């Protein structure tokens, strides 16, 4: 009897350690769950905000009233050098006729990468408007080209693949650049030209729809 009591007393510290370990494991697991849950909710919020921003931006990329309640926007996935991988392109139709295109394209020539751009093109692939969809350029330097700070991007309006000297003046082109943001200015100008060259031979009918998957890079 005394031996059994002694054994129970000897097991008590072990049981206490085991219980403490289990509690610690549960607390750790709960902390990990809460962190992952917070990250998931934050990512979802960021995506919603980004999608809302993109939707609002789409409405500004073509002339007024080109996109309206009766417009048909067909989203396609583009994988092509000069445009980027998994970029979205929208074919804008009214009354069955194409009125323009809106396309995302990216460049790795800025200070920080990627620099994601968006352009609105008329049915003849002339640029109506270029904007920045996503940028991590240095605040106060590279972001000087942002429409919230300047109208610099308007220099690309009405350009097309045949526009001569499609580069900034510092590199022999005909486009101005913002002092202190030469790299970003040039990255956007050159990327726009690359996009215009690449889009010329795209057959949009052959591209995968956005919800159907991705095409391979050409």
UniProtKB/TrEMBL annotation:
Signal sequence coordinates: none
InterPro entries per UniProt: FMN-bd, Ion_transpt_RnfG/RsxG
Domain of life of the source: Bacteria
FMN-binding domain segment(s): 110-199
Keyword list, A-Z: Electron transport, Flavoprotein, FMN, Membrane, Phosphoprotein, Transmembrane, Transmembrane helix, Transport
UniProt feature coiled coil, ranges: none
SMART domains per the UniProt record, alphabetical: FMN_bind
A GO CC term assigned to this protein in UniProt: plasma membrane
BP terms from Gene Ontology: electron transport chain
Protein name as catalogued: Electron transport complex protein RnfG
GO MF, any single term: FMN binding
Spans traversing the lipid bilayer: 14-36
